[in-house]
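In the design runs reported in the main text, the only information available to the sequence generator was the tokenized backbone. The following block is the verbatim input for one such run; it is reproduced so that readers can re-run the procedure and compare outputs position by position.
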């Protein structure tokens, strides 16, 4: 019998496994396909919520805790595995003028660096913008991480630390008896464990249907495109009208994204490609000379108000949940997984867990 089974091998699952393993637990992680190939791979990698002042305080607390620890985490992973997650602090420019007062009020409340800058500074920070901006919101401390590389580094890390990983192992059902988790049924195998943590992203609600109480988590599709450009063509992460551009170190430019209610459908569309391309070229005409190398879709695990579930199941002893992070899984991951590990191991929690309970209000 394994001490702890984790269902789901995205960043939430792998980082939870890492936290638990660092505490000495025997951990087995299950993924229905390959680790890191769903929302973790498909996301943009901005280490900040988009328009963070739109979110509840419970999200800001998770995000800020994660932001302060990502530089160290990225360094640890690179030193231990030889794989750089490409953490890069290049700042975030937000061009929506109507957001300025809310942004300033939020930054003042939390004591975080943010300012409204004039057109001259905007042009200096991002010369490639097509239309000079009268003003913009500038968040200089915001960083990005290259999420596929982060997934590779985390997988190498947990492998070296002795976490057992079973890929291509879909979980058919939870094994529950007498109000306690006994393990999971995976095909014809019963995998026993004294504790189970569900980190299955958009598939979490489906897995927990037979548990008596299931979280409100549903898939929201997001499509993105990737330009094969040159380094420093764009310098900053930019955001305007819910669409963002992210310049990678090698020159590639990620542009996204759509928000589509299509269930578990991950097919891309020509319409979405044209929509994203038109917006990207209007904003950055220099991209017209570079090809769109790739288009893809991912499924975000949406929850009410974007507040994740990080909690023990109230009706099944030994069953825990760490899911429902919507668009902010990367930035909230370090705090979410530390908090989940605290709850699983019975330690003093790093943050107040009350807002993330299965029965907590998410209005």
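Verbatim output:
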């Amino acid at each position: 019998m394994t001490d702890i089974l984790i269902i789901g091998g995205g960043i939430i699952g792998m980082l939870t496994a890492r936290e638990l393993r660092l505490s000495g637990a025997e951990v087995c992680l299950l993924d229905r396909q390959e680790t890191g190939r769903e929302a973790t791979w498909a996301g943009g990698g901005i280490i900040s919520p988009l328009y963070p002042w739109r979110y509840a305080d419970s999200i800001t607390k998770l995000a800020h805790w994660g932001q302060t620890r990502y530089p160290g985490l990225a360094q640890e992973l690179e030193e231990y595995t030889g794989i750089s997650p490409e953490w890069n602090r290049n700042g975030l420019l937000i061009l929506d003028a109507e957001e300025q007062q809310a942004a300033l009020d939020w930054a003042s409340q939390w004591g975080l660096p943010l300012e409204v800058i004039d057109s001259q500074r905007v042009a200096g920070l991002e010369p490639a913008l097509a239309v000079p901006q009268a003003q913009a919101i500038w968040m200089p401390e915001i960083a990005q991480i290259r999420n596929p590389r982060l997934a590779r580094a985390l997988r190498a890390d947990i492998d070296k630390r002795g976490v057992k990983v079973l890929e291509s192992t879909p979980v058919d059902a939870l094994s529950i008896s007498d109000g306690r988790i006994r393990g999971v049924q995976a095909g014809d195998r019963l995998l026993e464990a004294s504790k189970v943590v569900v980190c299955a992203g958009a598939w979490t609600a489906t897995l927990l249907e037979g548990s008596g109480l299931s979280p409100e988590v549903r898939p929201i599709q997001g499509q993105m495109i990737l330009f094969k450009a040159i380094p420093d063509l764009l310098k900053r992460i930019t955001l305007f009208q819910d669409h963002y551009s992210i310049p990678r170190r090698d020159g590639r430019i990620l542009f996204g994204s759509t928000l589509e209610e299509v269930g578990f459908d991950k097919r891309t569309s020509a319409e979405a490609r044209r929509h994203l391309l038109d917006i990207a070229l209007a904003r950055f005409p220099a991209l017209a000379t570079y090809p769109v190398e790739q288009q893809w879709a991912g499924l975000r695990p949406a929850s009410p108000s974007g507040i994740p579930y990080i909690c023990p199941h109230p009706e099944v002893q030994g069953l825990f949940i760490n899911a429902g992070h919507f668009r902010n899984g990367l930035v909230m991951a370090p705090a979410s997984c530390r908090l989940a590990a605290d709850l699983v191991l019975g330690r003093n929690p790093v943050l107040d867990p009350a807002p993330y309970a299965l029965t907590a209000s998410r209005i």
